[in-house]
Amino acid sequence: MFQKSHLTAFDIFSITGALPVQGSLALRAWLHPRKKLFTFLNDQGEESDDVTYLDLWQRARGIADHLAARYPAGERIILFFPQGLDFIAAFLGCLMSGHIAVPSPLPSRRRVDRCVKMISDSDARCALAPTKVIDTAPLCFQDTLAADLDWIPIEDIPSASRLPGTSDCGRDEDPERIAFLQYTSGSTADPRGVMVTQRNITINLRLMRDSWELDADSNMVFWQPHHHDMGLIMGQLLPILLGNHSVLMGPNTVVRQPLVWLRAISDYRAAMAGGPNFIFDVAVERYVEEKMTGIDLSCWKVAPNGADVVRATTIDRFTNLFAKHGFRPETFVPCYGLAEATLVVSGGPTRRLPRRTSVDAEELRIRRRVLPPESAQQARELVGCGEPAYPFEIAIVEPETLNRLAAGKVGEIWLAGPSVTAGYWKNPAATERTFHARISGEAEKNYLRTGDLGFIHGTDLQLYICGRLKDMIVWDGRSLHPEDIEHSIIESAGILKNQSCAVFGYHDELQRQRIVSMIEIDRSLKRRPAEELRDLKNRIRLSVTEEHGVPLSEIVFIPPNSLRKTTSGKIQRGVMRQLFLSQEFEVLEP
Amino acid sequence: MHDVSEITIQGRIMRFISDELGISAREIDLDANLGVYGLESVAASKLIGTLEKEYGLELSPVFVFEFPTIAALSGEIHRLAVVHAQ
Description:
The structure holds two protein chains of two kinds.
Chain A: H1 9-16, H2 21-31, E1 36-41, E2 47-52, H3 53-68, E3 76-80, H4 86-97, E4 100-104, H5 112-122, E5 126-129, H6 131-134, H7 137-140, E6 150-153, E7 178-186, E8 191-197, H8 198-211, E9 220-222, H9 229-242, E10 246-248, H10 251-256, H11 258-267, E11 272-273, H12 277-285, E12 303-305, H13 312-322, E13 332-337, E14 344-347, E15 356-360, H14 361-367, E16 379-383, E17 393-397, E18 411-416, H15 428-435, E19 448-456, E20 463-468, E21 473-475, E22 478-480, H16 482-493, E23 501-507, E24 513-520, H17 530-548, E25 554-558, H18 573-581
Helix pairs in contact in A: 2-3, 3-4, 8-9, 12-13, 16-17
Chain B: H1 6-21, H2 41-55, H3 63-66, H4 70-85
Helix pairs in contact in B: 1-4
């Protein structure tokens, strides 16, 4: 390999940190062909499938050969896969053949619109999927733009039989080539495919490995879906770079039986396992001491907690409860990241307790200032989301004047570095606005605007996240656009005017995300029977659940013309949220 | 031993919906389809797990879809818990 008879551990470390990820797989399939790479657990926690390094390379190579014979390089290939081990072979096959992978959730009824928009925005002509998906999915797309997709059943594609060599490692490939499109940003009406290059992937995987000191012995247990950046990059690509053995399972398995997750961490001696904050809460809520027999969590070194608000109470409860099962408090690694920056931006240092700071909640919310709490009631405990991971550079910027802010000041988080992605697919205007921002009065350097608010602490150097600049709602790690939910509400109710509804999120006293809608209705409705309003509420709730998969906690009916709007007629959701929280509004209800 | 009367089980499910989804108890209807409240697949799995723990039962992953209202769900849990206790 690489004209050498032997590669040292240092060689392998440097090479995998530079090659495209499919090249690292080829190298490892050559180095340790029979080592197990992934094991999949079913919803009972039993092993139902596994794949070695060589198996996965040969399956992906077979898919690449099949695609290369049919589609020109650069074509988008959309991937519809249930949880399991077929997805990653299809994904890597696309990368090997120079096609652009587009991971998608399965096209259930609720998601058809979103899938169709994704297919038309990416202009994909071909879909790869298992037969059982192909038996039903095309029906969902009848009479849509997506009806003409070519469907390729993954079972029909044979594995390659040859062995990998140096030429399969992709040393000379263009690192700026787009590897895949990540469609988690943007609203349904305006989908945004983040263009992730081969270099972006390599850099982000490398920074996780280096910041968290992971290696081939760092086994992992992951359960996030592969159409999410965390599930794909951290859960399924990082293992390839590291050369470890990773255990995968579906999200429903873990949410229903968090014990399956904890037992897998113990049984497979995993060094790394994590997810959004809520999964640690679920594990605490469902704890039964007698069922923990034989579970030893002392192998667990890194527990990334990211993609959502990281709560101090969650960390404390989890740590206190699981300490007697070997869990160490310094295992928690709160982190921050976003698809536009590939995945992880900050997190760590490891082997130290997560950093915290107590701030005045009012000052932060109203004046965006970080001050010690005025009283115990005003105190809000923030958890540091890690130091910037090399080679990221983080700037905190005043979002109106675009001036750089000093440590300890709250502003928009801006990022620079080779892990920042290439922009949004076929959307130069949004790419310009979001990826090519300039700090006023500084040399010409492009930054990515994250839309998140935060500050860098003057002494502990941690990045603290304080909320969103825009109205985005984050639910279990998913970003939702209020305008999409407002649209569903107005459609489902049938009697509402456009622009007569405001949707926003807030965190309750236990820092749980709640979604509220304030809806203007005609005063005459007040005189209608109570059941009618109740049915209306049920109809609205059902449509929001079906179309967005989130619950609407509160539906508040308000008089006509009481929604606050800007002079150009845009709904001021932030103002409505303030009015709602301070109870300064008139309710229209029988 | 747990109280496994239907009314207690109804109260437990309502409390789950109200804590988990933030919907005030007075707006929760015993006979409405649980889908109305935003109990999609992940939240439903969580509810099944909670009920399994609370009443010492083993339930099918699609239990909530087979008994999709609070009334139906609590009736069935009550029946299973009584059988289980014998």
